[in-house]
Each structure stands twice: as structure tokens, then as C-alpha cells.
Amino acid sequence: MKVETFSFHAATGWTVPSFPALDSPQTLVLVFGGTDFVDDPAPIAALAQAYPQATVAGCSSSGEIHGAHIADASLSVAVVRFARTTLRLAEANVAREGGATGSGEAIARALAAPDLRSIFVLSDGLSVNGTDLLRGIHRTIEPSVIVTGGLAGDGSRFQKTWVLVGGKPTPGWVVAVGLYGDALRVTHGSRGGWDAFGPERVVTRAVGNVLYELDGEPALALYKTYLGERAAGLPATALLFPLALRSASVGSENLVRTILSVDEASQSMTFAGDIPQESVVQLMRANFDRLVDGAAQAGRDAGQAAPGDTLSIAVSCVGRRLVLGERVEEEVEAAFESIPEGGKLVGFYSYGEIAPFAAGQCGVLHNQTMTLTRFGEA
Description:
Layout: E1 2-9, E2 13-14, E3 27-33, H1 42-50, E4 55-60, E5 64-66, E6 69-71, E7 74-81, E8 86-93, H2 100-111, E9 116-123, H3 130-138, E10 146-151, E11 163-165, E12 168-170, E13 173-180, E14 184-191, E15 194-207, E16 210-214, E17 217-218, H4 219-227, E18 243-246, E19 255-257, E20 259-263, E21 268-271, E22 280-286, H5 288-301, E23 311-317, H6 318-324, H7 328-336, E24 344-350, E25 352-356, E26 363-366, E27 370-377
Parallel strand pairs: 3-4, 9-10, 23-24
Antiparallel strand pairs: 1-2, 1-7, 3-7, 5-6, 5-24, 8-13, 9-13, 10-25, 11-12, 14-27, 15-16, 15-22, 16-17, 16-21, 18-19, 18-22, 20-21, 23-27, 25-26
Helix pairs in contact: 2-3, 5-7
């Protein structure tokens, strides 16, 4: 296994004099970039042309991660040539497949095989309910398959996102890479670091990922009372105050949900994933030190691989970036410190993170977390 990472900036071009000579049918090229590359895709096209045999996947970002650094309006690239792992790419048009669940089912059918070990999935960040997407994937694949990835971002603008389809930035699609064979070693970690505050409230009316009422009151009006003056900046300011979500049963795991949009007419809020009726929610706010510690713990959860070539992919929520502000590189540095000697790190800031809660569990949609996926070979 051989891994190289590099980046592109409009003002200075590529950070390598030429693309690494790693093209093969067992090469994976991952690209995370600024939203505006949908209008100026020439650098991505050049990259795809350099690797005609490779599997190329990527998405738009709310900030590109390369090593311990973050940039905007750039491209962060990893090129991985596996020695004993095979790859397969699946793509699904969300509208054509009838929504997120159908897209997940289509991808899973295309990738399913006895030796499938992992799926890395990237989705349009605005038109897809991540919970439904994963529900569709898990209907077909074995529970032992590790599913990780994320939803494409667009900063705090929430206007347009893209994934790479045929090497071109395209909105409204889901893409996924299947990785096959016993040589593959994949580990993962996912941590938050937010503090809950205020009373717990019951979801009394919700449909899928749209929340209408909490404790019988209009959800948006109630939420605005907590935001105060910040309510004028919705939906972007909602990234600062996500919801902790759990089922009413004792001992259930907490998920975090981020708002994608609000509807003043219906007083509702649309989230990146499902808000089940009768579940219990509570507002959360940032604890700076715990956010950074959470990123470090996610790296530790991904495990210490042997020194040598490994690729770690960091997917962190745009809300964390907005909250941390000038301290945001601290969380990337904390995750970077967990990288095995000789390993590489790329990633992006997202509208939703996909990772299991723990080893041996199906991937779920998270918000406001730092997740790490680490690929290596035995």
C-alpha cells in the first residue's frame, strides 16, 4: 500500500510538481474541495485524467483538511494504491432513485459481495436525509461491513453541494467506494464534546427529518427563545446550538442533530437526519476544550496501526468549525497526533458524519462530531 497526499490552491497551483505515479485498478483517489469548483472544475478534471484506471471519489467541503491544516476554496487530495485490496465505485442519483433510502439501496446492491469489508460513502449535503441513506444501505449489506463517510458541505451558506460523478462535481448524487478483501484493515472513531443544557423535551410531532413540535409547542418558536438575538442568523446560527437526541428507553445512545433549514410558515426545522417522534431532545452548546479533546479521542478510538503507509480520513462538522473559530486547527492537530508514523491525513468539514458508534456496529449518521476512518493493509 502506497499513500500520497497533496493540495491545490488557485493562487499557487498544485503543491506537487507532478501527480504521483500511482495509477492502477487498485488505486483510490479522494478529493475534497471548495463548493465553487462546480463552476470551475478544470483542476479536478486534470486530476481525474491523470488516474484513468483509478477509482475517483470526492465531495464539496466546508473546509478542506490536509495534514494538520485547514484551507478554504482549495482541493485536498489523497492517492492510495492498495496492494491486496480491490475497489468498486457505485453512484446513485437521488431524484432518480426516489430519495435517500432508494439511493442507499441502489448503492448497496451495486457493492454487495461476500468479500466486501468497508464502504466509504459521500453524499450531497442538502437533498439527502442521511438517516434514510444509511437505512437503505443497511437493508442489503451484512452488519459486519464498516460504513463511514460524510455529507458534502458548503460552509455556513447551505446553498449548493456536490459529489464527484464521472470525475465531475455534480449536485444531487450519492457516491460510495466499496473496499474488498481480507488484507484490508479499517478502523474508526467518532466523538463530540458538546455540553447539554436546559430541560429535556419530547418530540411530539415530526415527520422523517422535519421537526414540528416539542412538548406540544411549535419547535422553531421554542428554539428561537434559546437563541435570542442569534435567531436572526438562522439556519447558520443553529450550528452553534445543536440538539442531543435519544430514544425514550433507558440507556439509549445519544446522537447529535444539526439544522439544515427552517420554515417560518410551518414553524418547523429540517435536520440532516431523522428526528423520531417520541424521542427526547436537549439543546447543546460548545465546550471548547472538550471539542478538541473529542477530536483527540476520535483519533485514539481509531487505534494505533503499525508504522507505515496508512490513510486517515477526518470528517468533522461545520458547526464545530464555526464554534472553534480561530482555534479550529487545534482539533485537526489533535486528530493528526494520532496518525501512525508514516501515515497521512486528509478530510473535510461536513453537513453530517457517518461512522459506527463502536466496533462491530452499523454506521450511523452523526452531527457535530469529529470522525476518523483509517485504512491500512496487513
